[in-house]
Amino acid sequence: MGFHMKKQMSMEYDSPKMKVVRGLKSLLQKKRIENGERLPTEFKIAEIYGVSRGTVRTALAELERDGFIKSVRNTCRISTFEDKIIETSFLAKTCIMLSKLSNDPAVYAESGLMWAVEAGVINACRAYGLNTMFFNEKNIKDGSYRKVFEMNPFGVLVSHSISDDANYSDGFKFAEAQGLPVVVNGGGDSLSYFDRVIADQEKGCYLLARHLADSGAKRILRLWTAPESTYWLKDRNRGFEKAIREKKLALLPPVHVKGLEDRVKGSREVFDKRTRQYAGYLAEYLTGRNRVDAIIVTADSDYYPVAAACRLFKIDPLEDVLVAGYDNFYDECEEFAWEKSVPFVTIDKRNFETGRRMFELLNSRKYRSGSGKAQLVKIEPELVKTRGCI
Known about the structure:
This protein is of the alpha/beta class and about 400 residues long. The protein has three domains: about 20-85, Arc Repressor Mutant, subunit A, CATH 1.10.10; about 90-200 and about 350-380, Rossmann fold, CATH 3.40.50; about 200-350, Rossmann fold (3-Layer(aba) Sandwich). The chain is about 45% helix and about 15% strand. The chain is built from 16 helices and 14 strands. It starts with a helix and ends in a 5-residue tail after the last strand.
């Protein structure tokens, strides 16, 4: 979507007319104005929202065109919101998922990968007797979601793959403008207006650091590949530092790896290059008198080149240093073919449960059992202990 189109959508969203449309839709959907009940007069609505009567008439005309209200003998307007729901009964029983996932989410139900969130959403929707409709990257970019959102689906759930990308924020902003409940899998200040469900990264890194310390580690290095400003990395650092303080260990500054080669499926050449890149960052920490005895990496897929890098320094990742992964998908990583060991310990973020809880929060919003303030739900992680070769 081009700059001018985004600017136009933003201006439309913030216009006085849309302010009235959003406000009245919210009242109708929350049954503050019951089906068949009269709406306030144009004068009263203009007074409430601080707009002109002409703006109110334009907003009411849009609501009438979309089936939310109807005029009666040209003297008043009444709510027809429940009639609109009946007319769109299929969508009323359909949750919309905004996601970049291009294949079947069900295959990730038991995976540690983030796509398990989508699998959890589908599972919860089916258990509740609802349909799930996925809108992919193309549908969001071309704006085709707008007509569907205007037909009042059950609600909108936003994948991490969309919430982390500012190019797609217009999608769930528009959903909120339609008065739809929206739940996002993502953090960061820019999303604080929405209900969110995320993994408790702070607790996860706390558990890792405590376990490594309890296993005898004294000098624990954090080896991060994500940008320092990433919200979940900040959370991890808080949890790590809390555990280190409790254990009264030396707090080593995190090492941020930059320019790391992207993983390429089936490429041993790329794996070896990643190994050498990690070795460059680890050299000063794996040699000399003050070498580290434990390392925490960003994700399980990083474990394998890091373990291989340790071997370049004659450091055995099974005996001489404890290397912890994250995300609990080590057994799904093809890099095991080139490094025959697995992380000493890892964290299961419970992504499937995140998806289920996203739907539960959406459902509570739909039927108004949640508080008015946006909620942030953090999913408790699990420590997964494993050691040695598979």
